[in-house]
Specification:
Blueprint (H helix, E strand, L loop, with lengths): L2 H22 L10 E7 L18 H9 L1 E7 L5 H10 L3 H4 L26 H7 L3 E7 L23 E5 L16 H27 L8 H18 L1 H9 L2 E3 L2 E4 L7 H15 L5 E6 L20 H23 L6 E7 L8 E2 L2 E2 L17 H4 E7 L8 E3 L3 E2 L3 H8 L16 H5 L9 E6 L2 E9 L5 E10 L22 E11 L18 H17 L40
Parallel strand pairs: 1-7, 1-8, 2-12, 2-13, 3-4, 3-7
Antiparallel strand pairs: 2-11, 4-5, 5-6, 8-11, 9-10, 14-15, 15-16, 16-17
Helix pairs in contact: 6-7, 9-10
The protein binds 2-acetamido-2-deoxy-beta-D-glucopyranose (2 copies).
Cofactor: Ca(2+)
Membrane topology: Multi-pass membrane protein
Subcellular location: Microsome membrane
């Protein structure tokens, strides 16, 4: 060997060592650090996916993730509706800790022009990864608020929460975006506005009659003013559908609105293009991309190619289209040569919506053997979701993990793999999944999980490791179904969390989830010798958990912050000019 060559070899080895020492300092995460591609479906039921047992729907791309990766079969969302579940996912904390939980029945952020949202003081995994040198992107749905005080302060915007790049809906897709009969807001609002109009009209007529007959010693002014107000309310009610479409159904790129209202026929292709261009731009990594699908939430926007293709109506078509999107996204990853260096995760924010039905057709998801669905605090159908992790060559192919895990676990897992540290100044409820995924740990670190419906703990789960691995669940409260015991809360959007239509159970309902994942066999002291021990242990744990909660958390979904504020309404023009054409998209 030539001396010159040897010098170069030495230099290279020394440089390599120096780099290795530098990058491994303070962390035992595997090297090199992976990229992250996190995929989250909206309202997808665990029973809607082939690899979770559906034999008639076609989800080959999602199934492939399970075949080549790890499948979590006991993966639990922190809430059964979007906003709190997503807040928990991004922060690794029960949403009650961040004030992202409601007390009043308005369980998610209600308007793009509301003032509540993920508080700026919360730390998302994106924020930590950005600090660790990652490029971070969010494409798709946000639904965690936008502004605090002025229409452009964007205090709750993804870019204020650690994302370098955002393209998508700051709010959420909803039935009202296509003026569906299955409406989240319009129907209720129209009812209130109608009532308001009648009261005002009656008042105007009374005032006018009083003036005419000289029974009331007043001028015409009050009657005219009240009549004008009634006319305004009438007009708002008449055009409510259009107003909602403009107010909530728009797309943004970073801080700018690009399309208001959205033209849904091109949304899917826009989102896919955005994903592929993000991957291209960032192929030298490291990056974290969170693709938060608008699928499969109503109104089930589906392109022509997929309409009528599934055996399950429009809902099935929409699920199959989303699976195709997953395939396209994984294809882009492959094309950029990133498959081997990227940890891919797939999940749903919570279970399928049983209430989404019209005229005997189901437009919401299927939760398999699990009882209940979206919005029903404790029932498994609302919170048990798909959980797939894929990193070829690093994670084993085809491993199935039945241990209880949580969507909140993604936070510490991602942070650790990126070489970061979880915040030490606050409680993090998620646990690092890595040992479980790699098989170096046999058990989940979750011993107890609490299942909230708004601010109330409706149910709790105990992963009792010492007694041969039983997983107990108690329900302290359950929503009343119509018809009793089955089905959903028809005609009421989502089931309530409190009030007359919630049953309190004392003693609580106890289930053994391993033997009875469908929660059909209520255990009693006669059928289950451990009944009293299990119930009292879970009661104690819930009390302990409630005691350690901070009580000075600012509530983000209270009525005050969660109502529409005209001055916070995001508009691409100046309010009320809330429309702009897609050609203006400054890509
Ligand atoms: C598959 O999913 C569809 C759509 O949600 C559902 O209607 C059907 O019952 C499911 N089939 C099975 C076998 O789980
Ligand atoms: C309870 O449910 C019934 C049946 O759906 C409904 O008529 C009633 O108004 C509900 N009560 C409350 C307090 O929401």
């Amino acid at each position: 060997m030539l001396p010159g060559h040897r010098v170069w070899t030495c230099a290279a080895v020394a440089l390599g060592l120096a780099l290795a020492l530098k990058t491994s300092a303070g962390s035992d995460a595997p090297r090199p650090r992976p990229n992250f591609l996190l995929l989250m479906a909206d309202d997808l039921g665990i029973g809607d996916v082939g690899c979770y047992g559906n034999t008639t729907i076609r989800t080959p791309n999602i199934d492939q993730l399970a075949e080549d990766g790890v499948k979590l079969t006991h993966h639990i969302a922190a809430a059964s509706v979007c906003t709190p579940s997503r807040a928990a996912f991004l922060t690794g904390r029960y949403p009650i800790r961040s004030g992202m939980i409601s007390y009043n029945g308005y369980r998610v952020v209600q308007w793009a022009g509301a003032a509540g949202g993920l508080p700026p003081g919360e730390i998302t995994f994106a924020k930590i990864l950005k600090e660790r040198g990652y490029t971070t992107g969010l494409i798709g749905k946000w639904h965690l608020g936008l502004n605090c005080r002025s229409p452009r302060d964007h205090c709750h915007h993804p870019l204020s929460h650690g994302f370098d790049h955002f393209y998508g809906m700051p709010f959420s897709l909803m039935g009202d975006c296509l003026r569906w009969e299955l409406s989240e807001k319009r129907v209720g609002l129209q009812h209130k506005l109608g009532l308001c109009f009648h009261i005002l009209a009656f008042a105007a007529v009374t005032l006018a009659a009083g003036r005419l007959t000289h029974l009331l010693p007043i001028s015409w002014v009050p009657a005219v003013l009240v009549a004008l107000l009634a006319a305004v309310v009438f007009l708002i009610s008449h055009f409510l559908g259009d107003l909602l479409v403009h107010a909530d159904c728009f797309l943004m790129r970073n801080h700018a609105i690009t399309e208001q209202p959205m033209r849904f026929e091109r949304t899917t292709s826009l989102l896919l293009e955005e994903v592929s261009s993000f991957l291209k731009r960032n192929k030298d990594g490291p990056f974290l991309l969170f693709v938060s699908f608008l699928h499969v939430h109503i109104p089930l926007v589906t392109t022509k190619d997929f309409l009528g293709r599934s055996q399950h109506g429009l809902y099935g078509d929409n699920v199959e289209e989303m699976d195709w999107m997953v395939g396209r996204i994984l294809g882009s990853l492959e094309e950029e040569g990133l498959s081997g260096s990227t940890l891919v995760y797939f999940t749903s924010d919570h279970g399928g919506s049983l209430e989404s039905q019209l005229g005997g057709h189901q437009y919401g998801g299927w939760n398999g053997v699990h009882k209940g669905g979206k919005g029903m605090g404790g029932w498994e159908g609302g919170i048990r979701v798909p959980g797939l992790l894929h990193w070829p060559g690093v994670l084993p192919a085809g491993r199935v993990i039945p241990e209880p895990t949580s969507l909140m676990d993604i936070f510490p897992t991602v942070v650790r793999l990126a070489g970061g540290q979880v915040p030490q100044d606050r409680v993090i409820d998620g646990h690092d999944l890595w040992p479980l995924l790699r098989g170096t740990a046999g058990h989940s670190e979750h011993e107890f999980l609490f299942h909230y419906c708004e601010h109330l703990v409706h149910a709790a789960r105990w992963n009792q490791r010492e007694a041969g691995g039983r997983v107990w669940k108690v329900h302290f409260m359950t929503p009343v179904f119509q018809p009793e015991g089955a089905g959903a809360c028809y005609g009421r959007g989502v089931c309530p969390c409190s009030g007359d239509n919630v049953t309190r159970h004392d003693p609580p309902l106890l289930f053994d989830l391993e033997r009875d994942p469908g929660e059909r066999q209520v255990l009693t002291p006669d059928t289950e010798p451990a009944f009293h021990a299990v119930v009292s242990r879970l009661r104690r744990e819930v009390e302990a958990h409630r005691r350690e909660l901070k009580h000075d958390v600012f509530q983000q979904l209270g009525t005050y912050l969660n109502t529409w504020r005209p001055w916070l309404q995001p508009c691409c023009g100046t309010f009320p000019l809330c429309w702009c054409s897609p050609q203006e998209d400054p890509r």
